[in-house]
Amino acid sequence: MPRFLWRHALVLMMAALLPSAEVCANEPSLSTSIKGVTGLNTIPTARMEESGTLRVGAAHTEPYNHVFAGMQVTDYLYVNLRQSMMAESVLKRPERVYPGLDFKLRLAKEGRYMPELSFGMDSVLGHRRFSSEYFVLSKRYHDFDLTGGIAWGRMAGEGHIASPLARTLSRLDSNRDMDDENAASPSDWFTGDRIGFFGGIEYKTPIEDLSLKLEYAPDDYSTERKRTAPWSVGVNYNPKEWISLGAAMVGTDKIMARITFQGNMLGWRGKSYKESKPFQFDTRRPAQTWRHLPREMAEADGINLGKTRVSGVDFSAVLHMNDYQPSTMQMGRAARHLTASAGAYIETITIIPVRTGLRGKAITFSRRDLEQAIVRSLGSPEEIWQDVSFRDDRRSITLKNRERKFSLVPQLDASPLEEETTHLYRTSVLFNEKKEWRYGITTGTGLRLNVADNLHRLYKFRDIGMDAVRSDADFYTYNRVNLDRGFVSWMHTPLPGFHISAAAGYLEEMFAGYGGEILYRPFDSPFAVGAEGWNTHKRDGTSPLALGFSSEPRFTGHLNLFYDVPATDITTFASAGRFIGGDEGVRFGARTQLANGIKFEAFMTVTNADSKDVFESDRNAQAGFRIALPFGNLKYVPQGSEARINIAPLGRDDAAILDKPVSLYEATEPVSYRHLGRNWQAVLN
Fold first, then answer.
1. Is the terminal CB of the chain with fewer CB neighbours within 10 Å at N or C?
2. Partners of 450 in the β-ladder
3. Hey, what's the signal peptide range on this chain (predicted)?
4. Cα 206–chain centre separation
5. Among 93, 50, 52, 84, which Cα is nearest to 65's?
6. 328 lies in which domain range?
């Protein structure tokens, strides 16, 4: 494989190699097709991996090389980014690239008699060359796993029967042209006068981790060359749980080869904070309440308590939370210190959580529940949760101790979905400092160390003008060190559930300016709604530390809607408004935080910008995903440090959003009812 292909694969595989070799999927028998989703040789199956599984890999079958990276976002959704490259051979530089965003959605789990059912789409975004839609069934019988499905588009080939959808809706009767240079679009979905059937079987052999695959696939590659026989037979072998190797004979004249690396992010051992033993106290209650003692003891434990108050049989205090320890753990430890200093007559403990000036609901614990669980080991987090109550408390939350925090953030930005080149990438390291002051004021400073990139390729196919938004991304790599951020922000909760913020300064690497945000997030509702607006000035990436300015002000603003999916840690979001470049559109997606602190976000953006690539193909839709891996628990590393992997288009002027320094939704998440309930186990940690 030539050097440029190795570099391309290594950029994408970095995400999988970050976990240790011990972090691996629990189902090594599952493997992928040549395009990256779980499947046989070239076709998908209905199977899904465990939530949190990350896969990257590469495959070849004439005349394409495929490189892919995907993640099992939930038990029901797999998202896959793929770059397909046409080349004369695996050793040749590609003549053309065909990026695509694929996904597969589980509709029904396998039962005793019912097969597993999934729906998927190839190139829902990206180039039209591989666009397909399909329904697929899989059923296991002893060591055999049988698969069958129906498909539209590329996967259907010339088709087997007339499409029932085309008979119902005349607009679906037209066949999509796989040979043109247009991007895939919703108007292509389920089009075609005929649909095709595909299927196959996988046999788990007596040899451990070795399976045989036999399949029928209607895609005969007639778009690229002479027709190929529709059958293939191959093998898959997992020498280790974190690697999968596949090979197959496709028809009588083509060979398929694949290598995949996999790991489950739930096994990530990094944390954003350093572990310490919680404060312990004995069963004897003090004769009187020591109002100042809890603050001093808590400070030694890394907990920042405000003024305490005694009201009847309740002992309460404001808790100023940090952003790297779990919120429920901080609340539990604060409650320990209040309990240990409360007089014999105190029966309830109340914590008023505050995060960067934003106020949450006051949480009242039963003192007896805390003593039973902590001192006598006769209780549980669930029993404590049963008796807690929530209320509004409007007391002063002025911060006495000024909190300063440092963090280290290695970052990889990679864009495999480029039609003009195989990939773009950039690696850098951020050194951040943030300080909390009184009255909800926060200051932040960040330096960015540029390590390596290939953004010079942007000059080959982008028209970079004086009004560039992000197409001049290469300029920001000229200096070895730049000021990434330098800002002051203010946050406040004037009414229960209603939050406001404002920020000004060097807001992100490419833009300075000022603006603000409002958010209405009722405590017990899964919905939240807000709005934001920013007046930005483009920074000059070639000036020292990128401190200069290079263009006129630009305004960007959006209306935001959030929805917390019940019984999950998933939040869906949608924003509509004006992007930095003046184009308008919508951005939607989903984000989640796993139990070990890993954050994942997938998004899609659609804009009205008339943007085309060098092949005159429309690209007004974009997609990507982000992963943040905490490692603040390592020795000598600041708490709150994390490694970020951003897989998304680079150097695009359209659909550009501001990487704002503060987010009201993220700041209020640790004190939301959903977050507290799903992470309550940490209250005794």
1. N
2. 428
3. 1-25
4. 38
5. 84
6. 293-400
